[in-house]
Amino acid sequence: MKSLSDDAYHLDAVDKEIIYMLMDNAKTSLALISSHVGISTTAVHQRIKKLEQAGVIENSVSFL
Fold this sequence. Notes:
This protein is mainly α. The protein has helices spanning 13-24, 30-37, 41-53.
């Protein structure tokens, strides 16, 4: 069994802003996130994938 510290993922300010934007609207485009946080769309995509792999982002759900 892994300890919590083994799975810890350090969130920097850019990661947090990406998460906040996705919490507000899970369908936010990479281009919009990119322009808001000041990094390339490729970098945004890579960060989102890392957040998913770390379990920080699990899925996106729409509530009607």
